[in-house]
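Fill in residues.
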């Protein structure tokens, strides 16, 4: 036969030792729920399952890469030139050797009907080849027109390659001059055969 125990509760209700425990139960339950991912708290492993964020990466076009390797030519003092000229020299030019100078003419205004380019040089520098003729019809503003010119220094020193850019717009033709500095140096000294 089972005997049952009767626990008597004092008249004042729950004893003083039990009251703090009863008050702490809601706080403990909230902590447990938060640890399981309830109550707005994120589970530690949730970030691992979230889809990765995709960042847009801009890939440079060949034209942008070519322009990034160029520097501005010395242009007109007026700031309202309808074109800009940039250039790059691959190697330091050497006396009596051909060297290629790449350039880009960049229209800076809308409504141009044509752009033509010609090159010249003073004593000490020779223009060997102008490359393919640049004669752009109705060029778009901001779109570079690429070309190259071959030069040959005849002596060491600092020389100027001049670029004349003829721009036609609204029935008028205006010439804009740009200068490209060319520093030529002596080549490696020639040695006699069999002697270092």
């Amino acid at each position: 036969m089972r005997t049952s125990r009767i626990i008597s509760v004092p008249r004042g209700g729950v004893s003083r030792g039990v009251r703090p425990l009863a008050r702490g139960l809601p706080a403990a339950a909230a902590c447990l729920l938060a640890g399981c991912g309830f109550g707005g708290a994120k589970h530690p492993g949730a970030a691992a399952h979230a889809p990765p964020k995709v960042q847009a990466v801009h890939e440079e076009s060949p034209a942008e890469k070519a322009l990034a390797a160029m520097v501005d030519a010395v242009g007109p003092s007026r700031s309202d030139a309808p074109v800009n000229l940039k250039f790059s020299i691959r190697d330091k030019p050497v006396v009596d050797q051909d060297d290629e100078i790449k350039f880009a003419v960049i229209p800076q205004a809308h409504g141009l009907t044509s752009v033509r380019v010609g090159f010249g040089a003073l004593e000490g520098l020779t223009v060997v080849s102008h490359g393919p003729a640049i004669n752009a019809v109705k060029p778009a503003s901001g779109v570079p027109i690429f070309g190259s010119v071959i030069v040959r220094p005849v002596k060491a020193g600092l020389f100027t390659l001049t670029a004349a850019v003829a721009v036609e717009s609204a029935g008028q033709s205006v010439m804009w001059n740009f200068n490209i500095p060319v520093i030529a140096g002596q080549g490696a000294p020639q040695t006699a055969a069999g002697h270092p």
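The first strand starts at residue 71 and ends at 72.
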